[in-house]
Specification:
Blueprint (H helix, E strand, L loop, with lengths): L9 E2 L2 E2 L63 H15 L3 H10 L4 H7 L12 H14 L3 H7 L5 H14 L5 H9 L19 H24 L1 H7 L14 H14 L3 H8 L4 H10 L6 H38 L44
Antiparallel strand pairs: 1-2
Protein name: REST corepressor
Family: Belongs to the CoREST family.
Main location: nucleus
């Protein structure tokens, strides 16, 4: 491998920014180009590893910055009991997995003492709020693993914090957003003949082509089975969707979905409850009141109303034009005169005490349209 050596100025121990090859670069240019995804090769980008010291020369007690062991596995506790302990620490006391294991290791793997000591401490809160998680997910959809660009949307987070959260989020994240997953789970009405290449990537391997052949064979078998059973029988044999269980406890994913749903539906708590699937309208209303200040839900509602107002403004302009045209047509038809009132055949006209219909013309005994002229007395 041949590496091109570049002559770079070194000032104060740091590499200075040189001009771009086309001559239009400037020292104040954005760092996005420098931090873009690229492979960096050379001695300047390699880590410097110190020499390994022999065991006899090591003096760990003299090192000021020493690592602290917070967990070590043991065979004295079964996996079932360990999972029960971690679940209790998470749901009842708000610990995460690492904090719960650290408490157990502090008590030398004594489950009873560690369980009793959980209530005596307040776990360190998660530095990532629900809004931060929503912003990270949106930024990751736009920029991928370019953490320098993601940091522009989360300026209060360091690159190390973003990378650390990415790997913890990567384990539990789905391929689509949480809102899409909730919507697809309730509205899944697709038949067995789906698109075989929906999730495939271009330039697949031989294994992917074999999978496509298997999918095609499954389609043919399904078509043959449908012809035997008939269209009416397929719907009867299809298993129904199990109803979602209503739970008053809010998980982190449900809080994330709720904040996103407020951005989409505003204060329509019924729509938000239907989106979540596991909460009622009363649960959503209680969530809005309890977390109003913590997640700044009023600002989220204002953003929803602003977007909705812009949509109504565009629609109102079209509606007002149609209304003016209808008003012009009605004015032309009436020609400035009031429409006469007609009486249905079934309706009986009102009569006065002398039996004359009210509103009848003068020829039929009704009141005269003009007052009679009195002759002067002689």
């Amino acid at each position: 491998m041949v590496l091109a050596e570049r002559s770079n100025d070194v000032r104060n121990g740091k590499r200075s920014r040189g001009p771009s090859p086309n001559g239009h670069g400037s020292p104040d240019s954005s760092s996005e180009d420098e931090n873009a995804e690229k492979i960096r090769v050379g001695r300047d980008y390699q880590a410097v590893c110190p020499e390994l010291e022999p065991v006899e020369q090591r003096r760990p007690e003299l090192i000021s910055d020493r690592a602290l062991l917070v967990w070590s596995p043991t065979t004295d506790i079964s996996d079932i009991k360990l999972d029960e302990y971690i679940t209790t620490a998470k749901e009842k006391y708000g610990y995460n997995g690492e904090q719960a294991l650290g408490m157990l290791f502090w008590h030398k793997h004594d489950l009873s003492r560690a369980s009793m000591d959980l209530a005596n401490f307040t776990p360190f809160p998660d530095e990532w709020t629900v809004e931060d998680k929503v912003l990270f997910e949106q930024a990751f959809q736009f920029h991928g693993k370019s953490f320098h660009r993601i940091r522009q949307m989360l300026p209060d987070k360091s690159i190390a914090s973003l990378v650390k959260y990415y790997y913890s989020w990567k384990k539990t994240r789905a391929r689509t957003s949480l809102m899409d997953v909730a919507g697809e789970g309730r509205n899944a009405t697709s038949s067995g003949t789906g698109k075989s290449g929906a999730g495939s990537e271009p330039g697949g391997s031989d294994k992917e082509s074999d999978n496509d052949e298997k999918v095609q064979q499954n389609k043919q078998q399904l078509s043959a089975m449908k012809r035997k059973v008939g269209d009416a029988g397929v719907e009867d044999l299809r298993p129904g969707e199990p109803p979602a269980k209503i739970n008053s406890r809010w998980t982190n994913e449900e809080l994330l979905m709720a904040v996103t749903a407020v951005r989409k539906y505003g204060k329509d708590f019924q729509a938000i409850a239907e989106t979540l699937g596991t909460k009622t309208e009363a649960h959503v209303r209680s969530f809005f009141i309890s977390y109003r200040r913590r997640y700044n839900l009023d600002a989220v509602v204002r953003e929803h109303e602003a977007d909705r107002g812009n949509a109504h403004h565009i629609q109102a302009g079209t509606t007002s034009t149609d209304a003016s045209e209808n008003a012009t047509d009605s004015t032309t038809t009436n020609n400035g005169t009031a429409s006469p009132q007609t009486t249905s055949k079934d309706e009986k006209p009102e009569v006065d005490s002398e039996g004359v219909s009210l509103g009848a013309p003068a020829e039929q005994g009704g009141p005269p349209t003009t007052p009679p002229k009195h002759k002067p007395a002689k």
